[in-house]
Amino acid sequence: MSELMLYATPGTCAMTVHIALLEANAGHQVHKVNLAGGEQRTPEYLAINPKGRVPALVTEHGVLTETPALLLYVAQRFPEAHLAPLNDPFLLARMQEVNSFLASTVHVSHAHRPRASRWADDADAIKAMQQKVPQNMREGFAQIEEHYLTGPWVLGERFSVADIYLFVVAGWLESDGVDIAEFPRVAEHFARMQQRPSVAAAQTL
Ligand SMILES: N[C@@H](CCC(=O)N[C@@H](CS)C(=O)NCC(=O)O)C(=O)O
Description:
The chain is of the alpha+beta class. The chain has helices spanning 14-23, 43-48, 67-77, 89-111, 123-148, 161-170, 184-194, 197-202; strands spanning 5-8, 29-32, 56-59, 62-65. It contains 8 helices and 4 strands, in the order E-H-E-H-E-E-H-H-H-H-H-H. A 4-stranded mixed β-sheet has the order 2-1-3-4, with helices on one face. Strand 1 (5-8), helix 1 and strand 2 (29-32) form a beta-alpha-beta unit. The chain binds glutathione. Glutathione (GSH) binds at residues 12-13, 35, 40, 52-55, 66-67, 103, 115.
């Protein structure tokens, strides 16, 4: 049993870290954060993550946040799980490139639908931003389909945490008004990921 405690909510980006910890057999514990009920804004949760977001991972050395950082941490802490090409500078940077793109561009495009009020107060402006979400998600996934997903995994033959992250973000497409079938490689990858026991286990949270 490790000392790791993950704060996560089903369906969110935090599930990426949960699946990675399960892949690593990390012996972690999970606290299910009730985002809909506003738990992320309580003083107790803000003492863990002052940003009021999931994921947050409590470790023996302190609290870590931000999905790409957590994914690399899990991969480095549990090297026997082979969740990242730790000895290959180019491939490791490619993995970080994909994870950064998912975090900084695709996730942000998605957030403009459920969290549009972060960027505007005006109802018409919010509506206009939400209408752009399918287009922006399509543009992000077109990049992934054409340039990143060489298959069967993001890094070709090597499975990595980037596959977990891509799986979780691809799971948002339907609610964003995009049919995953528009991206055949992404759809195949999504189905392949669903076969993994870690994914099935995470879905019971
Ligand atoms: N940049 C952060 C984003 C974290 C984030 O936005 N998490 C969402 C769930 S996917 C959240 O906690 N939302 C709660 C809120 O906005 O109140 C990361 O990559 O971990």
